[in-house]
Write a structure and sequence with these properties.
The complex is a heterodimer of chains A (about 550) and B (about 140). Helix content of chain A is about 50%, strand content about 5%. Chain A is α/β, with parallel strands linked by helices and about 550 residues long. Chain A has a single domain, classed as TIM Barrel, CATH 3.20.20. In chain A, helix 12 packs across helix 16 and helix 20 runs parallel beside helix 22. Chain A is globular, with a radius of gyration of 24 Å. Chain B is an alpha/beta fold and about 140 residues long. In chain B, strands 2-1-3-4-5 form a five-stranded parallel beta sheet, with helices on both faces. The chains are: A alpha/beta (about 550), B alpha/beta (about 140).
């Protein structure tokens, strides 16, 4: 009898015993993504998993166990908290405070008008200026944002997508003014436009020209800004929009492959640009499912990069990622409990081998975080790092029958999605046919229905409620003076700058876009001439057109 | 009442977070309402225009961007201008209770915060429609 047969036989015996000697509680045993979980996992469940091929060693292909040999024994993950509000001056003050307190990298949150490429004085911006991030209209604001912050020493992550190329241009110009050449700039541009059509919906142009802009930035940075992380391929927003863990994994990696394809098509060598791609995942409530997702992600990326794209550089195989805990898992009810949820989610990210982490604050179902709430969130990471012993050895859950089974299942389910996306003709055709949007809407509705049928218990929401609960936490408010001041500032800029130069640089940008040239150098010229985001975006709209989605629900 | 209750689910402003709006739109549809979804990035003017053209009974606004204290009052003002006095304006999103109370005091219907159940929203709209019908037949 082989070992496998022995395990199988014993398992059958145990199953028979279990059924006579125990009875499960009513209800479903399933993950946060509604995947049913078996009673038990044992050696018989992992017979198709080969240790060397599927699991291996940290720091080595296929990186299931992490991208570094020593993981957190070498260096802890970067605790990178996302911040931004009000005017550039307000956020500059916050940045300086963070840097004085030992933070080494910055992460900029922009307000919605900036994210949507609109100036603060645009009618659609009314009520949104400086509210969910910092308001940036032109290079003038960017100069204030980084005033006194040396860009050759600090790395900056910018969460920006549709106007990403423009913000990169601003950053390069600020560097120049500080005397820091672009070769020395360090940072990350989110620049992941595909997930905007799929989930976050901050799109401006149709998918094809948007993709062209992404490729322009990758090409430009590959040649001129070599330390820059060009795309942060993001599953975070896909998950927040309601997807399952597998959908997050599969759609994000599919987006990643689509960027690789487009850059190769544009004539770049895979090993030139792929090492500068990074990822951004969500860490939701289901502890083991999340850990399996992170492990599967690394393995899938490594295999596709090496086998399918023939990448030779190990750095092209390694999936580096940032994690944020799941905003959508937090409750408005009894908000203090969100500290606990976030801690578990952060722990899953650490056990999954994340390179950097943002932990959400307890009050974020109601508003942007207060300073105290944000500090508790950061302290949560520090407790994980220093107090609970999870950093002593890489990938401590490897070899768990359950975790290895989940990892492999997750990988296989992702491959099935890649096949489906291929059948549509790729990511962009699948977006246009509403495939991702439908899948996500369906999953979001199912999750909500499970809560309402109490198949899924959320503490404080559909169980353990406090009927007369009053909100007892402080709420951060953004003064509407911010909008008035910013609108006045951009209006004054439009009057005092050299408007002939503005028109000239915008005209050249239009011509370059129409001629299908790389627009980056033209955007940099526009930035120097103090053209606003809205002006640059509107010029590009003349050539590229705009995008409206066909809503599916 | 033979006619189905017509609800416009709308996303005003630049906010693209449409998970809640879509879950509610599909739950209302399954509960037998006639649902019109505005799509994203609508101005208050566009929303009130759709409400007028589609002859809706209810406007449900979803805002997660923090701009609710600007957008709700503006929509209310436009509804008054266009004579949509018998249309219910309700909604939800990332709206602190204090703001929800202020909006309700200004004359909006109930504002639903995070964790609200679609069943409660359905019931709320049904009860509102019944009470409107009763006042009309008096």
């Amino acid at each position: 009898m082989t070992d496998f047969e022995k395990y199988k036989k014993e398992r059958e015996r145990w199953e028979a015993e279990r059924q006579t000697k125990s009875k499960d509680r009513p209800g479903k045993f399933m993950t946060t993504s509604s995947v049913p979980i078996d009673h038990l996992y044992g050696p018989e469940n992992v017979q198709d998993i080969d240790f060397f091929k599927d699991v291996g060693y940290p720091g080595e292909y296929p990186y299931t166990r992490g991208i570094h040999y020593n993981m957190y024994r070498g260096r802890l993950w970067t605790m990178r908290q996302f911040a931004g509000f009000g005017t550039a001056h307000d956020t500059n003050q916050r940045f300086k405070y963070l840097l004085e307190n030992g933070q080494t990298g910055l992460s900029v949150a922009f307000d919605l008008p900036t994210l949507m490429g609109r100036d603060s004085d645009d009618p659609l911006s009314h009520g949104e200026v400086g509210v969910c991030g910092v308001a940036i209209d032109s290079l003038a604001d960017m100069e204030v944002l980084f005033d006194g912050i040396p860009l050759d020493k600090v790395s900056t992550s910018m969460t920006i997508n549709s106007p990403a190329a423009i913000l990169l241009a601003f950053y390069i110009c600020v560097g120049e003014k500080q005397g820091v050449p672009q070769e020395k700039l360090m940072g990350t541009l989110q620049n992941d436009i595909l997930k905007e059509y799929i989930a976050q919906k901050e799109f401006i142009f149709p998918p094809e020209p948007s993709m062209k802009l992404v490729v322009d930035t990758v090409e430009y940075c590959t040649r001129h800004v070599p330390k820059w992380n060009t795309i942060s391929i993001s599953g975070y927003h896909i998950r927040e929009a309601g997807s399952t863990a597998v959908q997050e994994l599969a759609f994000t990696l599919a987006d990643g492959f689509a960027y690789v394809d487009s850059c190769i098509e544009a004539g770049l060598d895979v090993d030139e640009f792929a090492p500068r791609f990074s990822f951004f995942f969500n860490s939701h409530l289901d502890f083991f499912e999340e850990i399996a997702k992170f492990r599967a992600a690394r393995k899938i990326w490594a295999r596709h990069m090496r086998e399918r794209y023939g990448a030779k550089n190990e750095r092209s195989w390694k999936l580096r990622f940032h994690t944020q805990t799941a905003g959508c898992s937090l409750t408005g009810q009894q908000p203090e409990n969100n500290i606990v949820r976030t801690a578990f989610e952060a722990l899953a990210a650490v056990l999954g081998g994340t390179q950097s982490l943002h932990t959400n604050s307890l009050d974020e179902t109601w508003a942007l975080p207060t300073e105290k709430a944000a500090k508790i969130a950061l302290r949560t990471q520090q407790i994980i790092a220093h107090e609970i012993g999870v950093i002593n050895t890489p990938d401590p859950l490897a070899g768990s029958y359950f975790v290895e089974r989940l990892t492999k299942d997750m990988e296989q389910a992702a491959e099935e999605y890649f096949q489906k996306i291929n059948d549509f003709g790729g990511v962009i055709p699948a977006i246009k046919q509403g495939f991702f949007q439908r899948e996500i809407a369906k999953a979001a509705r199912q999750y909500q229905d499970e809560i309402e049928r109490k198949e899924r218990i959320i503490v404080g929401v559909n169980a353990y409620r406090e009927p007369d609960e009053k909100l007892e936490i402080p709420i951060l408010r953004i003064d509407d003076k911010v909008e008035k001041a910013q609108v006045a500032r951009v209006k004054a800029l439009k009057e005092k700058r050299d408007n002939t130069k503005v028109r000239q640089t915008l005209d050249r940008l239009r011509e370059a876009a129409a001629a299908n040239e790389n627009v980056m150098p033209y955007l940099i010229d526009c930035a120097h001439a103090y053209c606003t985001i809205g002006e640059m975006i509107n010029t590009l709209k003349e050539v590229y057109g705009t995008w409206t989605e066909e809503p599916v629900f | 009442m033979d006619r189905k209750i017509r609800v416009l689910v709308a996303k005003p402003g630049l906010d693209g977070h449409d998970r809640g709006a879509k879950v509610i739109a599909s739950a209302l549809r399954d509960a037998g309402f006639e649902v019109i979804y505005s799509g994203l990035h609508q101005t208050p003017e566009q929303i009130v225009e759709i409400a007028l053209q589609e002859d809706v009974d209810v406007i449900g606004i979803s805002i997660l961007s923090g701009a609710h204290m600007t957008l709700f009052p503006r929509i209310m003002e436009l509804m008054q201008e266009k004579g949509l006095d018998d249309v219910l304006l309700t909604g939800g999103g990332i709206i602190p209770p204090e703001d929800a109370e202020k909006l309700e005091a200004m004359g909006t219907g109930k504002i639903f915060g995070p964790g609200s159940s679609t069943q409660d929203i359905i019931q709320y709209i049904r009860e509102w429609a019944e009470s409107r019908e009763q006042t009309e037949t008096k």
